[in-house]
Amino acid sequence: MKNFILSLIALILNLSLIFAQTVDNKKCGSDIVHKWRLEHEVGYAESYEKLKNYVADFVAKHPNGYSPKSIITIPVVFHVVLSPTEHSSFLDLRCIENIGTLNTDYSGTNTHSMSDFPASLKANCDIQFCLATIDTSGAATSGIERRDYIGPDWATGDNGVKQTATGGFDAWDPTKYLNIWVCNLEYGMLGYATYPTVLDNFYGLVIDYTATGTTGALPPYDLGGTASHEIGHCLYLSHIWGDSPGCTNDDGFSDTPIQDIASYGAPTGVIFDDCQTTSPGIMYMNFMDYSDDIAYANFTPDQKL
């Protein structure tokens, strides 16, 4: 048992070092976590490949789009794990605000510019979010739970924040709730999420408290865009450039232009790159890019699927 624990500690330290070396200039750590799981987690690669093939087949069978018979409502629980000082400045209002921006972004009613892209590429995803009102025991809840935490900032992919025993909060049933952990992430990371390969107790998203909600959030990530981006990963959306540079990589959707690398800042107008040399250019306003919140505008119809 002692050797096992020592090996586990060494693995965690090594994982943290890998993350520290690769998060530079990143907003999102989902691809880092995904790559690590592909290489180290038994069965993950097979599960991901099955999911990938299923989505590709579904998109191919619905070339004209797909709409469910009714809007899907997803109950959300925020697990807030912060120091007492951080708690004092992080009001419940921040979580409530983020629910509002999620509903705007996923309903296609975000008013930000699409540049030269047609309005038809701003999809209503037929998803709405609400704070959970009933907890796992059937009792009334605000959908927000808090816990004081005194310790180092959380590393990308550190599941400690997702476990009560290690200072965080256990997930609520991931088949009934969307779990969002709010904490202080290290190295300036804004968030990370897990793909829906298995709806286990680590499924959900983690976002830095400074990029949650609007009131008191830090610009340029103060319009709720981080949660919209990370939930995209929870719903099996890749980064728009396909998670690796170059014009031979893709995110798997035909209505998002192939893009070389991530976009940063707040682009406006038509932007070209090595892959897109004519108008309308790259889709930097897509929620699965890295643009600032003010530039985010859309999910496409294929991404909606």
Features:
single chain, 305 residues, alpha/beta, Collagenase (Catalytic Domain), six-stranded mixed sheet, 7 helices, 6 strands, disordered N terminus
Mean pLDDT: 91
* Chain oligomer state: single chain
What's the story with the biggest beta sheet? 6 strands, mixed
How far apart are the first and last residues' alpha carbons, in Å? 46 Å
CATH H-level superfamily title:
Collagenase (Catalytic Domain)
Name the CATH class. Answer: Alpha Beta
Tally of structural domains = 1
Unreliable stretches (pLDDT < 50, length at least 5) are 1-23
Rg measurement, Å? 19 Å
How many β-strand stretches? Answer: 6
So how many helices? Answer: 7
Percent helix, as a range, is 25-40%
Spell out the helices and strands N to C.
HHHEHHEEEEEHH
Looking at the overall shape, the CATH architecture is 3-Layer(aba) Sandwich
- What class would the helix/strand composition place it in? alpha/beta
Named CATH topology: Collagenase (Catalytic Domain)
Shape descriptor: globular
